[in-house]
Design goal:
about 375 residues; mainly alpha; about 60% helix
Length: about 375
């Protein structure tokens, strides 16, 4: 490979490994290498092969609704009407039912991560106890959630008991808030992000972990999401926007729940505070879907504009030659998975050059820092 700088049109997906081998995606939405070593530009970002099936999420939503609204409300209101039980006993019985769903979903998810770690676990992780970040965050939320369920009926602090759903959601909101800052020197991995590497907004890790484990797409999706995040500046902005949106949502849920608990009678607040959780989930879920749809459309337009910009100024035919052309047809190696790379890379510089209307020159060492893409 020549060591002198070469003029390369600003393609957001060009990537070179530390060994000097050019790796480019052969699937739609990426860059492909010609037999002569040239690059053909794509108008689409690296693909995410995610197929959403409504059956499993819908059944799980109904399961949560049954365990956390229907059963506690039936127990509380029916026992209140037809039995002489006092308020403390009613709250105690309802609190036992309220945490029922977490006795199933958390252990099952932990089983998948431990038993099938090589399929579902974070990238570059070889230890069975290297769980993903969502598992740790969800465990923290469950501990905070269990605190009012355990002590509120005994004290008794009934209003504090009704704040338990908000105390399940609020810790996740705080974690997302902290993730808005890119931490550079954390001594432990965050899902597939290695230790002492720049962290990403929290919604990135939630999407990565839920798709890989709960939806069953495994490490393949983790690689695809990493490639998309590194290669596409609009996608990185979208992840940040969603993270901010859900931080706001957590605080909105907490505030409305507090208003219901301390602004209405206990009998009314009991059902209203539990039902509000699912109303909030639907509102924020639908809004997130619409935001994602709009911003991904913007992302595709951005990539198309980059391709048009390349055509306008001309694409070099020589490109960057590979020292091992056969590697361009294989998936990422273990060494590449461990290579943390640099977020933004060439794509971030392209966005800056596009806004200024100039064509820059990307050196080989710059491309070596660029985004990884999935073959």
């Amino acid at each position: 490979m020549a060591s002198s700088p070469r003029a390369v049109s600003p393609s957001p997906t060009t990537a070179t490994t530390a060994t000097g081998t050019t790796h480019v995606a052969t699937s739609p939405g990426s860059v492909t290498a010609s037999p002569a070593g040239g690059l053909h530009l794509s108008t689409r970002p690296p693909p995410l092969e995610f197929r959403f099936h409504w059956l499993r999420p819908s059944l799980y939503f109904l399961f949560l609704l049954f365990c956390n609204v229907l059963i506690p409300c039936l127990l509380y209101y029916l026992l209140q009407i037809y039995t002489p039980l006092d308020e403390q006993t009613l709250v105690g019985v309802s609190s036992a039912a309220l945490g029922l769903s977490s006795c199933f979903d958390a252990p099952f998810r932990l089983f998948l991560l431990v038993k099938h770690h090589k399929k579902f676990g974070p990238l570059s992780s070889t230890k069975w106890w290297h769980l993903d970040s969502f598992m740790f965050a969800y465990t923290i939320c469950l501990f905070v959630f269990a605190f009012p369920l355990a002590i509120a009926p005994a004290i008794p602090l009934y209003d504090f008991f009704l704040m338990s759903p908000a105390l399940l959601i609020m810790p996740m909101g705080v974690i997302l808030l902290l993730s808005l800052h890119s931490w550079q020197r954390l001594p432990f991995p965050i899902s597939s992000t290695p230790p002492r590497s720049p962290t990403r907004p929290g919604i990135y890790y939630i999407a990565e972990d839920l798709a890989a484990v709960d939806f069953g797409f495994g490490r393949t999706y983790r690689r695809q999401l990493d490639a998309r995040y590194r290669a596409s500046p609009p996608f990185r902005a979208h992840i940040m926007h969603l993270t901010v949106f859900w931080v706001i949502g957590a605080f909105v849920h907490f505030g409305v729940t507090a208003g219901l608990v301390w602004g209405t009678k206990f009998g009314v607040a009991f059902g209203a505070s539990l039902g509000w959780v699912f109303v909030w989930m639907i509102i924020w879920g639908v809004a997130s879907y619409l935001i994602t749809k709009l911003e991904l459309a913007h992302e595709y337009r951005w990539w198309a504009e980059c391709a048009n910009h390349d055509k306008e100024y001309g694409v070099p035919t020589g490109g960057v030659k590979s020292e091992n052309a056969a590697e361009g047809t294989r998936g990422r190696s273990d060494r590449e998975e461990k290579d943390e790379g640099k977020e933004g890379g060439v794509g971030a510089r392209i966005e800056e050059r596009m806004s200024g209307g100039t064509v820059g020159t990307v050196r080989e060492d710059e491309m070596r820092e660029g985004p990884k893409v999935v073959v």
